[in-house]
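A sample follows:
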Amino acid sequence: MGSSTVISTVDNITLVTLVGFPAHVDSISQIFKAIAKYQINIDMISMAPTHGAVTGLSFTISDSDLIDILAFTTELKKETQINVIVSSVNHKISVYDPAMKNTPGIAACVFGAISGTNADIRLITTSEVEISLLVTEADFDTVLEAIQKAMA
């Protein structure tokens, strides 16, 4: 779109989704404190709309922390009714542009570019100036190429 647009990627990302997670800020705080004790760095975080007292909470970590997160989630499943879904070997594609804050249509351009790819988009997070997509290994090259072409 603009000359200030930067597209970056990060490889080897694991997506962790906690289904049936208590929809309380205290619960979110406690879960991230517990994960921090394992020295695991969390990147993307997304919470689904609540359904009564529960929600879905997703976050990403490096694949290098997969063994540690599996140790954590094994304990979590023993102690709670939370269902845990773990998917590794994903890639994050981020589109950053400071102009995004005041330029309508950038999200439409990004999603329009990838709409024809039939890609498995695992997670989407945004800020005022960035759109980040987590995609599978199989779809990475196709999605990246589509975004690069659209943003050129």
In short: The helical segments are 25-36, 66-79, 106-115, 140-151.
